[in-house]
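re: ur question from earlier - yeah i can do the single chain one, its not a big deal. heres the input i used so u can compare w yours
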Amino acid sequence: MGTGLCITSMRSGNKLPSRRAALGAGLGAVAVPAVARGQERLRWRMVTSWPKGRAGPGVSAKRIADRINAMAGGRLQIDLFAAGEIVPPLAILDAVSNGTVEMGHTAALYWQGKIPAAGFFTTVPFGLGPVEHQAWVELRDGQALWDELYRPFGVRAFLAGNTGPSMGGWFRSRLNGPEDLRGMRIRVQGLGAEVYHRLGAVPLTVAAGDLLPALERGTIDAVEFLAPATDLETGLLKHAPFYYAPGFNKPNGASELMISLRAWESLAEDLRAIVLEAARAEHTLGLADAHERNAIALAEILGRHPVALEAFPKTVMDAARKASNELIAEIAASSALSRRIVESYTAALNEMRGWSALSADMARSLSRS
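and the output i got, formated as tokens:
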């Protein structure tokens, strides 16, 4: 199960910057060391998979760059580039791997074509939620497995923002059962795309900036994107009135800060700590930010727009779960490392899900009292 692996990057004796100092709201007050005369100054480029300023991941990328720039005291400068400014949004892995840029802000699920188990470090259908996933990566052996998975590509990655659980998506017509998915053209990402394919749908890859035009032109029938805040900003409700939940294919929304292994190993230890803590702080703040914005956005969507909030029929959920279980078993069989990742992830899911369910029930009870 890999329980003997040790995650040293977050538990070393190095003194890390305080979390309060790392949060964006306090950047102006962070005390940073003056750059010694003649000391090397590094300038890195961070490319992203997001349009500039995109709610959620786009904002997270900027906050990470700002934190590093503030805390590094001029020794490390991060220049931020939106999707397409240097490389296309789905080419981040190649760009960081081949040294075109030093780092990228993206999501591991984009690389599952090359790395079948990569999706486990973003989200898995019916899998870990955000807090469960962070516990697996940071407190169990998830980070060590992630490092091992990416090492052949000359990169490493850390959790660096989270958009929270996704909604099920926007559909032009109401679903009555699995048969309604057959032939449906749906924009969907990650392992969930393969689940939809196994249910007879036609999954399509459409970049975030092209979603609304594709839905407006009718070249797609449904869109799974993120959650209410980002969905509202993107305007998807204008052309698809049925809003489905739960987002069984994306119960988590982890972003990754991907860094060239060569660049990472060239950093001084204190700069590594700064980069790592900047990413870690954003995972926490990004999730809280998403939760608050999604609550407000959902109320606006349902209160001001002719949108029907729908639950997936049980027959759809049952068929999707069966397809997901089959897919995960196939990934586990694809390599010894993939099997270890699946086993470690599944153990975390089984051991934490009881408490997660109970705490959710308690929260619902309190909200009704």
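Residues 1-38 have pLDDT under 50 and may be disordered. not sure if urs matches, ping me
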